[in-house]
Each structure stands twice: as C-alpha cells, then as structure tokens.
Design brief:
heterodimer, A: 362 residues, alpha+beta, Rossmann fold, OB fold (Dihydrolipoamide Acetyltransferase, E2P), 2 domains, five-stranded antiparallel sheet, globular, B: 272 residues, mainly alpha, MetI-like fold, two-stranded antiparallel ribbon, 11 helices, 1% strand
C-alpha cells in the first residue's frame, strides 16, 4: 500500500492586507505519495514557490493544514520538519568547506562526529564530489555547487526533499545531465521529491505526477502522459507542449463525442470533456497536437492546407500551414534523409490521427 | 567640434586640465604631510631649514610623561567607544535589515546616521550644555562622559559597513540553516555572525579611527585633566611648534595607516 507523505487540506495563503492583499494560493487540496517524484509546474507568479515554502516551513499558511507522514506540522518552524530544501541560489554557506556544508544538518541535529564524517563521505560519493571535500563553495563551478546543495539537503535523510527550480541556473547540457542525476538520486534514496519548475519539458521527463498551477489554483493533477494527452482546459493545453487550437462547428453529439465540421467540408470525431454537452451548430474550441497529424497528398486526408513557412528543428520540421477557412495549423514532421521541406504556397492534405482531436472547455 | 567623447562614451580623463587638477589635488593632500614627516627627523628646531637627520624629537616625545599619558587615554577611549559602538551598531544593523519593511524604517536609518549630517560643532555644544547639567546634578566628573559621547559619535560609522555587509548576504543562507535543523540562535551563531565578521571588524576599525581623531567633541565634553592626544597637541600648538609635535603626529599617522590598511585588507579579502 502506498502511504501518503504529504497531505495538504484547504490551504490558502495571502500576502498583505486589505485592498493591497494578494492571494497567492487558493483552496489547495493535495496529497503526495511516499517516494513519489512530484512536480509543481506553472508560470512565474502562479504560487508554486509559495506552496513549496509553506511545505518547508518558511511561510505560514493563512488557512488550512499540512501533514507530513501523518503528523500535523502546520505551526512548526522549518528546523522542526523532516524536510530539506535545495534552493534556487543553492545557498551554500560560503565560509564553510564543502564537507562542513554537507555535514551542517547532521551537526545541528546533534549527531556524533564519527557518524557525521561517515555520512558526509557517503554523500560526497553519491554526488561524485569526493575529491573536493575541503574546497570552499566559491572554488567550484555552478554544476558542482548544485551537486553539493543536493548532498547537503540529502545528508540528514529527510522524508521529503524540496527542489526550488534547482536547474534553472545551469546551461542546457548540464541541465540534461542533472535531470538524470536527480532521477538516479531519487530512486537510490527512495525519498519523496517535490520539484518546482516552470519548464514543462523538465516536468514531463522527470515526474511521476505533475500539478499544473495558475493564479494560486491547481488546474490539473496527473501523470505526465495524462496532462499532455488530455489537458483539462485551454491554459493547460497551451502551457504544456505545443497545441493547435481550432474553432469548429458542432454537427452532431453522440454520447461522449462530438462530430465537428472541418474547414473544407469533411467531418471528424472529437472527444468531449466530462460534463460538456454542446448543442448542434455551436462553435467549440478543439485541440490537436502538431505531431498528431500527417501530411498527405493534396486532395486526400481530412483537411486541405497551404504551406506558409517551414522551421527546421533538427529532429523535426515545423510546417506553418493555413487551412481553407484561414485558421492557422502547425504540423510537426519528423525529418528523414531525402525529404525536403515543402515550398511556401504549395498545397498538401492533412490526415488527423484517430482520437487526436479533442474539444476543450475554454 | 567633437566634445570630450571617446567611442561614444563620455570620458572625464579627456577633459582639458584633468591631469593638472589631479596632480594639484594630490600635492595639496600629501605635500604638507610629507613635509611634516620629514621635519620630524630634523636635528634642529626649525620647520623650514633642514639641519641633519636625528631621532631626538621622537626621543623627547617618548620621554614626555604627558604625551604618554594622553596617548594612553586616547587609545583606551577609542577602544572602549569603538567596542561599545560596534556592538550597538551590529544590533542596529540586524534590526534594520533582518526584518521585513516596517513603517518609519527610512526615518530610523536617518536617525542612526544623524551624526554624519549634523555639524560636529553643533553636537559638541549640545553635549557641552547637556553634560554640564548632568555634572551639576550627579557630581560625577569621570571619563564616562567622554566614552558615552565618543560611542554615540562612532555608531553611524560602525553601522554603515556592518549594514552594507548584511545587505549583500543572501537571505536564503539563513533559510538554509533553519531548513537544516538550526534553531534561530544556532543559525545566527553558525551562519549569520561568521558572515558578518568582516563588516563588524571594518565597523570597529572605522569607529576606532574616528574616536582617535575627533577633536571638537572631546574639547567640549572633557573635564580638566582629560586631554586626549589631539586636544593635547592642539593645546601645545598654541604655544610653540617644535618638531616634537611632528614626531607625535607622524606616529599618529603611522597608527592610522596601519588601521586603514587592515580595514582595506579585511573588507577586500574576507568580504567575499
């Protein structure tokens, strides 16, 4: 049985008072399972960092409760919670050696020296920094500081590790490396990770579950595949990955699906979100991912389109198309040898993958 | 006509007369001091005619019991005032930077830095009147008045580098300490305080030099027999200027240089 590590109920947080008050979090209910890699994803200002700071104990909620491993920790300070944080700025103590940085939490817990020394050595090995124990934080690179910050937060063996956009300061290559490093550390230690990021790709590749946040709300909670394939609303569909939004007319409604009229006269089936029953003839927003359609010979397929431009991305090419009714459409096409990008103003057909078209609530 | 602009960038060094003014300024600043130092080694009494090298004026100064007396008083007064001022300034800096913004914060800054703004002579006269009243009321005429006056005067000088240091510290460091199970006292003891040390040392040295140097405040507050080195020298100069004064001033200069150099080294190398 999976036990609940973090249980958040009815959590609200506002800053300031009266007319100047700003509500950062609204009625958050959330449970995170033990050993889960959980990601809070959203644009800046959505409340994800505030939520993380409340779990850490740096901020107190205005209302609601927070339990960690079944214990109510709502009123406790950060030093009394079995939670450690990897800060965005790393926040390594500049006046201490790397070993002293890593051992700091254990020292504050009053652990015996021999145990501290053993754990520090183990942690240095875990993040592959054995040779640098006596250096100062100012003497190592950003990526190495990142590893030390991780080792320092893991050394006291917390129940939960909080990570506040820890990879945002690294360059792309190092970021990719640290992503797999984080996954490795998480599976090796079995500690629950709560990861904050605004990078949707990072969230999709690393997480067991993602909470997409906006304006203090959790909009959608689910596995990466679920969030990507079945976004609940326009914001989530737009924020996660690339999406084509099409305004289409409903021709018929059959059970949980609608038959939509496509530009050019053909029709296609689109799944309807739960609780939505549009009337025949109504205009709805339908979404389809750029990779879920295929180019076909002109005159064939579901849609007819004119090529406006092509953007080369290495692994694939994005074709910017215009449909018969002047709506835009982006098609992602895998690059293959000997397959040139179609010339601007050339025409092609589009075949939509079955089940790819979905109606969204606005 | 092109103004003094190099590659689109304004450069003050290209203004006509820049070099001349710079040289004149340095001459005005340092030539008198160099002359003072040179004539401290003169074997004659003259301040304008070189009569050969001698250390006799240093000998005279060291053998002068009064000079020893006022020097010691100056040193321990500066030590006491700078120490107390540094402790108070450290607390003030913590109180004004380690809390959220509060109403009247700017006014508190202004009040702490007030002695930098108010003319020293005004502070001096105010202290004279105040101390005189207290002396009449209590009958106490000891060094306490000078220590208190110097302390108050030193606080803003000690406060500035300490606050500057605190403001450059990443607040996340203290959060990290708390996150790693440090109690508020432990977080201060192991993280905040060690990181403040360069600022505190700089503040102490600045306060020490200011106290050592101040004439006006001491002159107005001191009772009979409480001369410090600067007020003693001022008194001697009213009579006759002998190279003994040059010798004392040179030693005084050397001490200041040592402290200022230490200040510079501390703020530079440990200030990272």
């Amino acid at each position: 049985m999976v036990s609940q590590e973090i249980e958040i109920a009815g959590l609200n947080k506002s800053f300031g008072q009266g007319a100047a008050a700003f509500q950062a979090l609204r009625d958050i209910d959330l449970t995170i399972a033990s050993g889960e890699f959980f990601t809070l994803l959203g644009p800046s200002g959505c409340g994800k960092t505030t939520l993380l700071r409340i779990i850490a104990g740096f901020e107190q909620p205005s209302a609601g409760t927070l339990r960690i491993n079944g214990r109510d920790v709502t009123g406790l300070g950060p030093n009394k919670r079995p939670v450690n944080t990897v800060f965005q700025s790393y926040a390594l103590f500049p006046h201490m050696s790397l070993a002293d940085n890593i051992g700091f939490g254990l020292k504050m817990q009053g652990k015996p020296r021999a145990e501290i020394r053993a754990t520090v050595a183990e942690m240095l090995q875990l993040v592959r920094m054995e040779a640098m124990a006596d250096r100062r934080p100012s003497e190592i690179s950003g990526g190495q500081q990142q590893r030390v910050a991780l080792a320092r937060a893991l050394a006291p063996r917390p129940r939960v590790l909080l990570l506040d956009e820890p990879l945002s300061a690294l360059d792309l290559k190092l970021r990719k490396e640290m992503q797999s490093e984080l996954k490795r550390l998480q599976s090796e230690t079995g500690i629950t990770f709560v990861f904050v990021t605004h990078d949707q790709e990072e969230a999709l590749t690393m997480s067991d579950r993602i909470a997409v946040m906006s304006a203090g709300h959790i909009l959608q909670l689910g596995a990466p595949q679920e969030i990507y394939n079945t976004p609940v609303n326009r914001f989530v569909a737009d924020f996660i990955g690339d999406t084509n939004f099409l305004k289409l007319r409903v021709k018929a409604v059959e059970g949980g699906a609608a038959v939509l009229e496509l530009p050019g006269g053909k029709t296609a089936q689109a799944s309807l979100p739960e609780g939505m029953a549009p009337t025949t003839g109504a205009l709805v927003t339908a979404v389809i991912r750029p990779e879920q359609a295929e180019a076909a010979a002109p005159g064939t397929g579901d849609l007819q389109a004119t090529v406006e431009s092509a953007t080369f991305f290495g692994t694939d090419t994005h074709l910017h198309l215009t449909l018969a009714d002047a709506q835009g459409f982006v098609l992602r096409r895998q690059n293959r040898p000997g397959q040139p990008a179609p010339a601007p103003q050339s025409r092609l057909g589009l075949a939509l993958a079955p089940g790819a078209l979905r109606v969204l609530k606005d | 006509m092109r103004p003094a602009v190099a590659e689109g960038r304004y450069s003050i060094t290209r203004l006509p007369g820049f070099g001349l003014i710079a040289v004149l300024t340095f001459v005005m600043l340092y030539l008198p001091i160099i002359i003072l130092v040179v004539y401290s080694f003169n074997s004659g009494v003259s301040q304008s005619r070189w009569e050969g090298f001698s250390l006799q004026w240093y000998q005279a100064a060291f053998n002068n019991a009064q000079v020893r007396d006022v020097s010691l008083r100056s040193l321990w007064l500066a030590l006491a005032a700078a120490s107390i001022a540094t402790v108070l300034a450290t607390l003030a800096a913590l109180g004004t930077t380690r809390v959220g913004r509060f109403p009247g914060q700017t006014m508190i800054y202004a009040l702490i830095n007030q002695p930098l703004m108010v003319p020293e002579i005004v502070t001096g006269i105010a202290l004279l009147i105040f101390v005189a009243a207290v002396k009449v009321q209590t009958g106490y005429t000891g060094m306490g008045y000078l220590v208190a006056a110097h302390t108050a005067f030193c606080i803003p000088f000690a406060y500035l580098p300490i606050r500057a240091r605190l403001e450059t510290l990443d607040p996340a460091l203290e959060s990290a300490a708390a996150d790693l199970y440090a109690s508020p006292v432990q977080a201060f003891r192991y993280v905040t305080l060690p990181l403040m040390v360069p600022g505190i040392l700089a503040g102490f040295m600045l306060g020490f030099v200011i106290s050592l140097d101040t004439v006006v405040i001491t002159e107005f507050v001191k009772s009979a027999g409480q001369d410090t080195l600067p007020t003693y020298m001022l008194g001697q100069l009213r009579r006759a200027v002998t190279p003994e004064m040059n010798a004392i001033a040179t030693l005084f200069l050397a001490l200041s240089l040592v402290i200022v150099t230490a200040f510079f080294l501390i703020t530079r190398t440990r200030g990272r």
